[in-house]
Amino acid sequence: MGSCYGKRSQSDYGTQNIDNQPETDNSSPQKFQHIDEQACLGNLIITNEKVGLITKDYTLLNPPLGSGAYGEVRKAIHKSTNMMRAVKIIHKAQTSMEEQERLMNEVKILQKLDHPNIIKIHEFYQDESFFYIVTELCTGGDLFDKLSQEGSLSEKKAAEIMKQILSAINYCHNEKIVHRDLKPENLLYESDKENSMLKIIDFGTSKEFVPKQKLNQKLGITTYIAPEVLKRKYDEKCDIWSCGVILYILLCGYPPFDARSEGRIMEKVSKGVYSFDSQEWEEVTKEAKEFVRKMLQFEPNKRINAQQALNDPWIKRFTNPTEFDRPLMTEVLTNMRKFTKQQKLQEAVFKFIVVQLATKEEKAELLKIFQCLDTNQDGKLSKQELLVGYSKVMKPIEAAEEVNCIFQQVDKNNSGSIDYTEFVVATIDRQQLLSKQRLQVTFHMFDKDKSGSITIDELKEIFSGIPEEMWKQVVQDFDSNSDGQISLEEFFAMMKKID
Ligand code: ADP
Question: The pTM is what?
């Protein structure tokens, strides 16, 4: 089928604050600050900000992967691990205070979010002239490219795409984050493999919201913008509208509200009138059109939310539920049972390795089990969901005991649910992960001054939030020659205790 979906939206050159007015809602404005941004992993914190030259740790490659409003995104190789990453580079002198705030906001929000369909942040650097955001690398192009190649997609493919986007958005909304700039250019394929996962990027315009409090900044791209955003009185449902526009395009190849000028598009959006009249829609099922209607419902109060969208009959009909793989589930849940209270530092190092060094392949099967357990698809595991999972592989009474015990140990941030990284940390095959080679790499990453041993100060720089008492304990337990430093051998000994 031919496609009229030929042009990229303007926000390739940055998402517009359409009328350039600052947000004036009641929530406190984000002040630009010298951030000590922290990736919270449970109640342990890995400090991610690095001051100094990124080129000490990364080789930046050319040509750029893409360019945004305030700089470019480059592919990079992490020198000590050879892992490939993406680095967003922002020129300080060319950005206003407001734009720098936007960047800090993006870093802060990305560090908070932990979902398989949301781009993962690894590090944040700044030197005199630039800011650098290091994230996982996506190599499969964006959804816009896919659409340009294929015109429109089958309902099955469209549903698989929408399920991933909605799952991430459901998670964001539960975390009280609204994205505000959903569009195909901000949806990247992790790789060019057939079943590659989609990742939402560009959280520069996203915002923490307070339920029932309206936002008022006009943001986003006119094609995807919700009518209530134009009126500057909206909430997180604006993301669902954008999902509706995306789905409409996926199914027919052109946008629901289109015209030659931005002004005319805005006029159409503000009326909210669109149709399924053209021939591209003839073959599309009634359920699909109904689902589009529910997401492009003019009144935000009557519009479905992300959770309801995920449970829509159309999504259910065209996507496969994650298959229940008993042997794998048993193995994973057994690993989780074995997850015993570690020394805090070992646990922190282990999380560091999972986040920074575990490969997609090592996590792929765990993701399947996670999705299988996460029955309400909010991107987290509740006690009840875990109980249902365990009851499939053991007696109900044992399962209940098991789950209580696991929650005490795995839910490190006491959130009442287990998030994706906590799950991976608790269930990954430790022996495989903690190979000698990988521990060596980790050791060298910690040993910043390349002295051949790690000092407590070097560790403190990476892991904040660990009490002074514990550092003393670490020295006592593992520093066998009492020189106040941890050698490679001592580090191996320390990590061996994890099994
Ligand atoms: P901006 O916020 O400045 O608009 P984006 O985050 O949208 O920047 O990134 C600009 C472009 O860089 C994207 O459209 C995409 O092509 C590319 N890009 C961004 N992040 C990644 C990534 N993690 N992997 C691969 N390419 C990326």
Answer: 0.82
Instruction: Give domain 143-318's CATH architecture.
Output: Orthogonal Bundle (1.10)
| Domain(s) of CATH 3.30.200.20: residues in the chain | 38-136
Indicate which atom in ligand 1 lies nearest the CA of residue 13.
4
Ligand 1 centre distance from Cα of residue 444 (Å):
30
**CB-based contacts of 466, cutoff 8 Å, min separation 6:** 44, 344, 345, 348, 460
The ligand 1 atom nearest the CA atom of 204? 2
Fold of 326-433: Recoverin; domain 1 (1.10.238)
Q: Which residues contact 489 (CB under 8 A, 6 or more apart)?
A: none
Identified catalytic residue from 57, 114, 142, 181: 181
pLDDT tens across 249-300, in order? 999 999 999 988 889 999 999 999 999 999 999 999 999 999 999 999 999 9
Residue 307 CA to residue 327 CA, distance in Å, equals: 30
For 97, what's the count of Cα atoms within 13 Å in the CB-facing half-sphere? 7
**Range(s) within the chain of domains with CATH label 1.10.238.10:** 326-433, 436-496
Residues touching ligand 1 (Cβ under 6 Å) are 14, 65-66, 68-70, 73, 86, 88, 119, 135, 137-138, 142, 185-186, 188, 201-202, 204
User: Distance from the CA of 142 to the center of ligand 1, in angstroms?
Assistant: 9
CATH number of 436-496: 1.10.238.10
Distance CA 254, CA 245 (A): 10
pLDDT in tens, 405-448: 888 777 766 778 888 988 898 888 888 888 888 899 889 888 87
Q: How far apart are CA 345 and CA 356, in angstroms?
A: 16
Q: Does residue 181 have an active-site annotation?
A: yes
CATH annotation of 38-136 = 3.30.200.20
| Smallest CA separation from ligand 1 atom 23, residue | 137
